[in-house]
Amino acid sequence: MQPSWTQANFAGWPGRLVISVPPFPENSGHTLTACAAGAYDSYWRTFGQTLNTTGRQNSIIRIAWEANGNWYQWSGSNPSAYVGCWRHIADAINATADPDPMLDWTINAHYSQNPASHNPLDLYPGDNWVDIIGIDAYDHYPPSRTLAEFNRQANDIGGITWLYNFARAHNKLFGI
After folding, report:
1. Which residues lie below 8 Å from residue 70, measured CB to CB, with a gap of 6+?
2. How far is 81 from 34, CA to CA, in rounded Å?
3. How many CA atoms lie within 13 A of 155 on its CB side?
4. pLDDT tens digits for 6-59?
5. What's the rounded Cα separation, in Å, for the pair 1 and 21?
């Protein structure tokens, strides 16, 4: 909520920051369900005001990234809670940051442990809340030893090309 090390360290830098933010502190008892009910909105409004005071409204804010995995406490095992939480965060930031920052919804590439459908699009917050659709694609897993392997993985659900096509169909920027 308060200015971070990144914002202070890059205070005079003219570039655009990419700031990844969890929906709540981990290991704190906070939940997606409470977030979706608006319990943390005041913190996110403060975060938006902090963007104003640090002159970083032009930042890209990656909210609750890789929720299609199972390694974060905000993993999307409950899609409606995840989507509701994401929307509350986006609305709170946009209500206070002026102008609005770019909000980035990012999945982890390839297989989705969450949600139960294994389709990460079931976690998409919606066009009204998302500016950038992104993917965290790591080149070590699964390996692409041939062009055919790469193309298959890229076009499968959760692949780079598959998500790029989704982003283009929704007139969104795409980030890798």
Report:
1. 77, 113, 114
2. 8
3. 6
4. 777 777 888 899 999 999 998 999 999 999 999 999 999 999 999 999 989 999
5. 10
Domain ranges in the chain are 16-175
pTM of the model: 0.93
DSSP, residue by residue, 62-118: EESTTTTSSSSTT-SSSHHHHHHHHHHHHHHHHHHSSSPPEEEEEEESS---SSTTS
Sheet holding 173-175, edge to edge: 18-21, 60-63, 102-108, 132-136, 173-175
How would you classify the pairing of strands 18-21 and 173-175?
Answer: unpaired
Integer Cα distance of 121 and 135 in angstroms: 12
Q: Tell me the C-alpha distance between 137 and 67, whole Å.
A: 14
The CATH number that domain 16-175 falls under is 3.20.20.80
Q: Is 133 helix (H, G, I), strand (E, B) or coil?
A: strand
Is residue 29 left, alpha or beta, with left meaning phi > 0 and alpha meaning psi from -120 to 50? Answer: left
